[in-house]
Model the fold of this input.
Amino acid sequence: MNHAALHPAGPLAQEIARLFWAFTSVTGIVYLIVIGILVYALRRRRTTDPGAQEAGAARALRFIGLGVGLSAVVLVVLAVNDFIGNRRLNAGQVNPIRVKVTAHQWWWEVEYVDSQPSLRVTTANELALPVGRPVMLQMTSTDVIHSFWVPNLNGKKDLLPGYTTHLALIASQAGAYTGECAEFCGFQHAQMRLDVAAKSPDDFAHWLDAQRSAAAEPDSDPARHGRDVFLKTSCHLCHAIQGTEASARLGPDLTHLASRAHIAAGARPNDSANLAAWILDPQSIKPGTRMPSTKLSGEDLNALVAYLRNLR
Amino acid sequence: MTQLESTWSDPPGLVGWLSTVNHKRVAVRYIVTTLVFFALAGALALIMRTQLARADNDLVGPDLYNQLFSMHGSAMMFLFAVPVMEAVALYLIPLMLGTRNVPFPRLNAYGYWLFLFGGIMSFTVFFLNIGPEAGWFSYVPLSGPEYSPGKRSDFWAQMITFTEVAALIGAIQIITATFKMRAPGMTLNRIPMFVWAMLVTSFMIIFAMPSVMLASTFLITDRLVSTQFFNPTEGGDVLLWQHMFWFFGHPEVYIIFVPALGMISEILPAFTRRKVVGYLGLVIALVSISFLSFGLWVHHMFATGLPPLGMSFFTVASIMIALPTGLQIFCWIATLATGEPVRFATPILFVIGFFFIFIIGGMTGVMLGASSLDQQLHDSYFVVAHLHYVLIGGAVFPLFGGFYYWFPKLSGRQLSERAGRWNFWLFFIGFNVAFFPMHILGLEGMPRRVYTYSAASGWQGLNLLSSLGAAMVALSVIVFVANVLVTLRRGARAADNPWNAPGLEWATTSPPPAYNFAQIPVVASRTPLWERDFPTAVVTGLPDLVPSVLVTRLHDAEPDHVALMPEPSIWPLLSAIATTILFIGTVFTPWALIWGSVPVGIALIAWFWPRKDETRKHQQVEVKPQEGEQREHELREALS
Done:
């Protein structure tokens, strides 16, 4: 399960899963006891004598007092448990990787922060992190409220316009996980996913280096024509490709588009056919998306797709 | 007797039908109206469940789906759950208290008409494709002017205005009736549990509703006249909405479910043949739930990045509400254990179903109230499961039990027990099949309010199961409706007190006459109808010529004075129409507030305009207090 709260892949999600099982077993036992007493109450042989009834009620009052007292003890234990979990989840992280996440309707902008501008990396709808090292997300939104949720790594945190919120992620094993937007954010709330890859430290360093490089030069004639199509039609008005003149930030940065698993925030797998369909008519794939449809000739479209598929 | 009957009966014809101020006629309309909205909102849920039954389904697109769940939630909350409880109370409470009407009968009619028009407006705009689209919670900025252009969110906000005004009117009736119109002898510690529950609920309504009315007014002005309450780029704040909404929204849950707790405390004694155990504890539990419920709204906002200490405070407040709730459950189990053998009629089946379902909802509630655990569960399908376990298990099951229990009083006919059993078992099994899998879906990462999901997610099997359960619930509601319709045509006649219950509402005929009680009984205990030779005394001297009620003192219910009640009038209806024009007008222009208030003013003046024949009758029945006469006489003596 790559999007399940009870298959934790890191200590923070592990802590919440521990709380879940603690709460579930305690409340489950309480439930069975209460239902057991209820069934006993319904089946027991009862008296029709009012005097005996009142004596029974007096005895029952003692049991009620006992039940409420025990419940209070159980609740205090659970509350203390939660308090401990709360402090663990909100503890400061040592030497974290800092990543800015900005939510848009309906995609995620991800920026690896670095004091040196040339080492900053901007990508979209994907997040890579090294196993064992914490990542601290600084999150905000440019439009409505969203919520960042990768259940295998941690609970969720809202992204609110006008606020910056923080969320730590720690992965203890390599793997691919899925994140979702958890706060209803309009039309395409259902298709606002992000691919999270936990990599070994070496693989992560590799990945980061690759992301820091400028876009790959087109290596074939169709791809070169595709770059012209990108820069001369409307594409560059919203998208950036580092190393070209395209530098707009309205839509996702496409510098390394071909290295991503999905397009349109998880709406489709990233392959040539889906890419072509998405460029021609995004509204049929993801109704309401901010991306307009682009009318291109077959030749231009194929060239553009060839160029984009080359952006590894 | 004939004078009493003609005094309390409505004028004939359509105008009479529209003018009635009799609490029973108004309440029956109210109940039927809320049930129609319940069925409509349920139908919307069925469309959603059909859409979600398959992965990548394209039966319903995102635009319609968002409206479906927004309307489902808004209608269930504002047009069904809160008003149905008030409607039942407006029928039962005067009967339970031994009085003849609600304290403000014309206002009562006005409240109903306003609710009806608000509900009709909401569903009309929904069918016109301008229904709410930002959820029943309408979070800004998604519902603000920039991200919700058009009129959809304005109509949502006006639906709030309509229904909240109606809810406040109901709350005022219930509080006043409980405080001042109890039968003589019904001291505070003899008030029926359902009345206690409604009293507590009514106070919660009075404190909670203004918060959401203010919030929705801010929203309307943001949208209509460009105030910037919620716009972060102009110094507004998006979290302000959430605080104001949930300061109402969490007590709302208890507003819905506290009345249901009262119903359980009423139903149990009739079937166990004993007083409910722990009356004082039950009352204290209700009151403490109402106080606690105002201190835990932040658990809806645990993911917004609040300081950890604040979260821990609200965690403790949230999970401690399990104590008073648990106390009530223990008291009811003790009642079952110490009474006579239970007669398993349909009302008690629904109460037992309540235990099985609601306690699960309470347990998951403790989990959601824990701030760290909630980080995973929040806004996932786990919450959808939880809230339906609480609201359907906690409120709808007792409500259905209540329908079966009080239907004979209301209609004079006994609902079919056989159909009742089908109704119960289909509902109970269907409900669990529909909602239990959602716990697992939430843990598997399925977020709420998604119009579709991919096959790769692995959520299809449980979603299909859930949809099948929803169909079973729908079937059970159809059985219920059929049971009611068939019973009304040719059901068995009900006795005045078919369950041999102890409450005053069973002391009159089924259905009750327009004046409820020919003679107001004096109450000598908590279970008046189980007293030997009830009633030991009755109130005499209430004038028959004009509708009048006995007003008693707050704490000891000693007779205080006689209040003359207004006669039927068409003006509450016309005032409600004028108010409706004002409310709907303000969706389009702020000036509607100015010109719209003119017809409202005219209608209200006509409403209160004294009528000559009415005044003459009032003068006829006027009695000078005896001691006044005595003093006047003494003064005259002294002066002469």
Observations:
- Chain A has a mean pLDDT of 94.
- Chain A has three domains: 11-89, 97-212, 221-308.
- The two ends of chain A are 28 Å apart (CA to CA).
